[in-house]
TrEMBL record, chain A:
Protein's name in the database: Uncharacterized protein
Automatic annotation (TrEMBL), chain B:
Protein name: Helix-turn-helix domain-containing protein
TM region(s), chain numbering: none
Compositionally biased tracts (Polar residues): 19-29
Gene3D superfamilies in the cross-refs: Desulphoferrodoxin, N-terminal domain, Winged helix-like DNA-binding domain superfamily/Winged helix DNA-binding domain
Pfam families: HTH_20 (PF12840)
Lineage top rank: taxon: Archaea
Region (Disordered): 1-29
InterPro entries documented for this protein: ArsR-like_HTH, Desulfoferrodoxin_N_sf, WH-like_DNA-bd_sf, WH_DNA-bd_sf
């Protein structure tokens, strides 16, 4: 499993357990990843509608939960599937 | 005798280049990772990715494993094979390889990694879904609407389906070659009018593949 998948799983699990926003710093510390890498991934997740930034942290969306439920090993998210038709 | 062509083994035949890639003697087929069997009674030829021993039969009799072949065969180029069999250019395969074991990645990130236009990535994602290497799901967005998610099919399934797909393509190609052989045979039997080359290509006028412009 890649670090992105681990991060997304962590954000959902941590948010549900603690019932509070997840910060890049704590995710990086818990997963043993570089904080700038985590911040970069969370920005990409935001673009994909998988997390929403609020104050100093992030909360997972229903889209992230649906993605994890697919239980897939790798995925490409196209957040604007209608873009080419516009 | 001197060769004017720069490519060793290449000869110009009326504007078309005839390239002989295999100048050495043909390898023993029993040492290849596939097996070809022939029926000793009829014209049936079978390709298998395994050594089936005496298990391959035709008319209830064991088939003979082919160990030698007379015609030189050009070594296949993976890019050309994927393009011919599945209409999948290298760019499409690159996208497929990016997603295996990694993600979630956005279509935009894939475009940046591979230096493609985002619209190109989107087009190949659709193509990869159509040929069955990726599966597409629609996930709900909190603000309404949906996102598309493309995930690779199970690797065992990918292996199985690409081989079956390729065998279908090879079967269609073999049918064309067999039809070509029968066309020549019929021409000789019937003592046909006109030149064989004209009769031959007229027979296959509808089978000419259009170049892939994608």
């Amino acid at each position: 499993m890649g670090h992105r998948q681990k991060l997304l799983e962590y954000v959902v699990a941590q948010y549900d357990r603690e019932e509070r926003l997840v910060t890049p710093a704590e995710a990086a510390r818990s997963l043993g990843l570089d904080e700038s890498l985590v911040a970069e991934c969370l920005t990409a997740f935001t673009d994909c509608h998988l997390v929403v930034p609020e104050n100093d942290g992030y909360r997972p969306t229903v889209t992230a939960r649906e993605l994890l439920a697919l239980d897939c090993d790798g995925a490409i998210v196209d957040p604007c599937p209608e873009a080419d038709k516009l | 005798m001197t060769e004017d062509n720069n490519t060793p083994g290449a000869h110009d035949h009326g504007g078309e280049q005839f390239v002989n890639h295999q100048s050495q003697s043909n390898p023993n087929l029993t040492e290849r990772p596939y097996s070809i069997y022939r029926c000793t009674d009829c014209q049936n030829i079978v390709l298998s990715m395994q050594d089936c021993g005496d298990g391959m039969t035709c008319h209830g009799e064991p088939m003979e494993r082919v160990s030698e072949y007379a015609m030189d065969v050009n070594p296949p180029d993976l890019r050309q094979v994927l393009l011919d069999a599945f209409g999948l250019p290298k760019s499409g395969l690159d996208i497929c390889l990016c997603v295996i074991g990694e993600g979630p990645l956005s279509a935009n990130e894939i475009a940046e990694r591979l230096d493609y236009e985002e619209s190109t990535v989107r087009r190949y994602l659709k193509k990869l879904d159509e040929i069955g290497l990726l599966t597409r799901s629609q996930l709900n967005r909190e603000d309404g609407g949906f996102v598309n998610v493309y995930q690779p099919v199970d690797l065992d399934q990918m292996r199985r389906e690409t081989l079956i797909g390729f065998y279908v393509w090879a079967g269609e190609a073999a049918s064309l070659i067999e039809q070509a052989n029968l066309t020549k045979e019929d021409y000789l039997k019937e003592g046909g009018d006109g030149r064989l080359d004209e009769v031959f290509w007229e027979e296959f006028a509808d089978h000419r593949a259009e170049p892939d412009t994608k």
